[in-house]
Amino acid sequence: MHNIYKVAVTLFLVVIIGISTTAQNRTYSPYSRYGIGEIQDGGFGRNAAMGNTGIALSSSYNLNNINPASYFSMDSISFFFEGGVSGFDQKLETETSTARFSDMNFSYFAIGYPVSKWGFMSIGVKPESIVGYSFFDDNATQGVPENSGDYTRSIYQGNGNTTKAYTGIALSPIDNLSVGAHISYIFGKISRYSLADFPNDPSAIKLASSEEFSINDLFFDFGLQYRLKLKERHNIVFGAIYNPKSGVNGKIKKTIGTGTTFNQDGVTVINPNITQDSTVTFKGKDLELAQKFGFGIAYNIDELLTITADYSIAKWSESKFPSLSTSTNDPNAFTIGDEQTVAFGVEYIPNYRSANFYPSRIKYRLGTSYKQEYLMTPASAGGDHLKDFGITFGMGLPLKRSKTSFNLAFEWGQRGSTDNSLIKENYMRFTMNLTLHEYWFMKRKFD
């Protein structure tokens, strides 16, 4: 009964934390304006320090939600808690100006436990996509003085995120092969706002629009891992993941109005003339999450060294978006292409059995990743994929005589460029998480 009580309390915390994630700001990037925002990498503390790899990673010390088949590597008497926070420093740079932002947020929460000798489960909550931007453009670059009555300015703001709450299970139908699946509930709201303004003419009519985009739907993804034993303590793991293309249920509320005064939290207008106020409910025909394939390989020397590599492709060019077309003829519009990611990671433990020298038991991690994002720059700016390159490193700090550990991960990366009047982002991320391990299912004997 004591363990059942712990499970109930843990599930309650998962729900509460999941609801709280919808209010957090995780980016200030203008690129998050498009589609459903910045798609977040899967994985937890160990993955983050190893280039966000995980398709072929398995461990009895850490959870790995990138591939649900990895849950089968948990031992049959253990219960795992994983939770973390992350912070970031983001520098946005154009050819003429720079801006800097920073923040810290809840990162994720998950539990993992055996359901029998043949199956293992995990339940968790994590961000799925994020939106956060505030910028403006004007006609000063065209030679119009900022104090002139002809000066115009357009303001763009957006915020919100979508969150994934998931349950995963892993089974082993034959020796050395594990298969797994997630069922996920993705929910959240994204708000976008724009205002066309004449700042030097208080009597001028302004045009404003707002869009509230909310989704809530169930999704599935699948994975497998096969372990090939080479010799004592040496093995290779092959992994694969698959996310089918899925339509999304939700709604879009659009408001367009003209007036002299606007509240920028929405289109609240004094002296208003609302030209459009509509709510459209869609059933998967206007928004689709992309079909995704991923493959990974990991070479392991047990309790000493892991070297891994991942490749994945998400077919966003074949998906639909409610506010971004892949067939636009506007040379100044962003478009959608397929997203591809290549990542590498290494974990090294000098001597996990060392009793006297703690640094020998630390897990040292390195990684790198290169992503060709689904967002493509306008044809007038080259029409190429937005690029994201990152370098990661971190440590797993174990507690004495326990599988519990603190995990630290650092990432430095660069996204985009200042060419063709675009924006370059330099960012640093810091992730700290706790992997708490307890023996909940061990039968104790007393003399």
Cross-sheet strand order for the largest sheet: 2-3-4-5-6-7-8-13-14-16-17-18-19-20
Give the terminus-to-terminus CA distance.
23 Å
CATH first level: Mainly Beta
The amount of beta strand, in percent, is: over 45%
What's the gyration radius in Å? 24 Å
Shape verdict? elongated
- Bin the helical content: under 10%
Briefly note the structural class of the backbone.
mainly beta
| CATH homology superfamily name | Outer membrane protein transport protein (OMPP1/FadL/TodX)
Enumerate how many helices there are, as a single number: 2
Provide the residue-averaged pLDDT.
83
Low-confidence stretches: 1-9, 18-23, 266-271
Count of β-strands:
20
The largest β sheet comes out as: 14 strands, antiparallel, barrel
CATH architecture designation: Beta Barrel
CATH fold type: Porin
Order of helices and strands: HEHEEEEEEEEEEEEEEEEEEE
Number of domains: 1
Short description:
With 447 residues, the chain is mainly β. The protein has two helices and 20 strands.
Which descriptors apply to this entry?
mainly beta; 2 helices; 447 residues; elongated
Write the layout of secondary structure elements.
Blueprint: H1 2-20, E1 38-39, H2 45-49, E2 78-93, E3 98-114, E4 119-138, E5 153-174, E6 177-197, E7 206-231, E8 234-243, E9 246-259, E10 261-263, E11 268-270, E12 273-289, E13 292-301, E14 305-314, E15 335-336, E16 339-348, E17 363-376, E18 385-398, E19 405-416, E20 424-439
Antiparallel strand pairs: 1-4, 2-3, 2-20, 3-4, 4-5, 5-6, 6-7, 7-8, 7-9, 8-13, 9-12, 10-11, 13-14, 14-16, 15-17, 16-17, 17-18, 18-19, 19-20
